[in-house]
Amino acid sequence: MKIKKFILAIFMVFLFILIPFFSNCVFSKYVIDSQNIVAKINIDRCPPQIKLLNIENSNKNYEGYANKNHIIKLKFKVIEKNILINNFNSKYIKFMLDDNIIYPNSIKIDLLSHINDEMIYSITLSGINGNGTLKIYFPEGVIEDKSNQKSKSEIFNTNIKIDNISPISIFKENLLDTGKSLATISSNEYIRPIEGWNLSNNNLELSKEFSNIIYYPITITDFAQNTSKVYVDIKNATFIKLNYTTFDYDNKLKLVPSGSISGENTILSNSICKSEALFINYENSLNPYLLQGRVFVYTYWGEGANAYCKYSEEPYNHGYNPSKYGWRDNSTDVSAYVSKKVCMQFGGSGLNYKNTSCTNKYNPIPEDIASKYLYGISAVSFSLKNYSEYSVVYQTYVKDVGWLACASDGKELVYAYDKPISAFRMNIVPKSDKQYLIDFWNKDIGTNNV
After folding, report:
1. Which of 140, 197, 314, 393 would staple 206 via disulfide (CB 3.0–4.6 Å)?
2. pLDDT for 163
3. Residue 284, beta-bridge partner list
């Protein structure tokens, strides 16, 4: 009996323990499903990136070179969505020439666009002093994201050579068997071409043939657009010979070569003498009649007057000689010998001599008028019969006015028809070099420079 009661007690204990278990797992009517978000985490494994997109250089056609006057514009892309720190500025970004840090005079940084995870920046530089290859240095951490990843340290080479040193050039003349001179200009660095000159394949030497004596400066420009001047100084060419002289009371009729001043002593002594006659010797075996000219002669006797040159006894008249629309060249009979050379003669000596009269009017010049030297050549025009290769340039000096602006290729050069000239110069030049000579001579406009 006792055993049965013990077994029953044990069964009741087990039943009491197991009933809650079976009621939850087997007999429950509802099941509750519950989820809890502990943390929301964005995984960013890509550090910020900076890429160079393109480079612009204001030195067009020579984009691989620049100097302090050029503007260089660079465009960069920054790739990063979760930016924490942005140091894309001129205080953080560095600029270098070769391995040296530099500080351009002007640095402008602009944000051009910001779309999604990309930003486009432009960096504009100017006033870059020094010499070397331009590089852009981005230290580590220009851009830092929210996961503390930093853009890497990087140097971008623009391959633009910054050059602020002017080229050094040397001129040399070599007389050829033809009578022409070969001019060469050698430089210590690459130089740009010049119209009318031949540039060597290595871009270091210019060459050109000249037919006669000439002197003027020419500008040499390197690839970075730095400039220097070198003088073209042809002294020995004889293919074209041009000599001339003006006659005045003090002049001894000495022929001077192309480009030289006839009447230099008149300017230096501030003389009141005027150029009464002009004698020009032009020699060229291929075309002896290429050069032609006319002048306006202002006389005491006035319109319609005729006279004879005291020096050569050749005729001339008041006004245009030979005529307003005519030309005189080597084929005419009006010529004179000066220094044993045959010269074209324009005007005539004796215009300011006392008691001198013209041939068709008896009207002697009074002594008080003759002493004032009021008469002579006041206008000149020279031209070439063929402009395929050459131009002719000429310039006159008027007392108390100075040098007048140059004229060329048939244009009349005159200050006033009653204001004769005191000095004169001219030259025959290659067409491509015409403006160089004009610019050089025109620096004397209004001065007494000799």
Report:
1. 197
2. 98
3. none
**Cα separation, 119 vs 115, whole angstroms:** 6
Instruction: Decide the pairing of beta strands 413-414 and 376-384.
Output: antiparallel
Of 58, 72, 161, give the one whose Cα is nearest residue 122.
72
* pLDDT (0 to 100) of residue 23: 42
C-alpha torsion 266→270→275→280, nearest 10: 30
Nearest residue to 244 (alpha-carbon basis) of 232, 258, 234, 233: 258
Low-confidence ranges of the chain (pLDDT < 50): 1, 13-41
Write out pLDDT tens, residues 4-23.
555 555 555 444 444 444 44
3-state SS assignment for residue 350: coil
What secondary structure letter does DSSP report for 431?
A: G
In the numeric block, which tokens belong to residue 17?
């323990």
List the beta bridge partners of residue 282.
242
How far separated are the first and last CA of the chain, in Å rounded?
157
Structure tokens at 156: 């971008």
Give residue 3's pLDDT.
57
Distance CA 334, CA 19 (A): 151
Asked if 370 contacts 354 with a C-beta cutoff of 8 angstroms, the reply is yes
Alpha helices in 105-222 (DSSP H): none
Q: Residue 65 corresponds to which amino acid?
A: Y
Nearest CA to 216 out of 444, 433, 450, 448 is that of 433
Residue 116 backbone class (left: φ over 0; alpha: ψ -120 to 50; beta: rest)? left
Measured between alpha carbons, how far is 352 from 16 in angstroms, rounded to an integer?
157
pLDDT given for residue 361 in this prediction: 85
Q: Do residues 236 and 173 touch, judged by C-beta distance below 8 A?
A: yes
Domains defined along the chain, listed by start: 49-162 (2.60.40.10), 169-234 (no CATH), 241-442 (no CATH)
Rounded distance between C-alpha atoms, residue 76 and residue 142, angstroms: 13
pLDDT of residue 5: 53
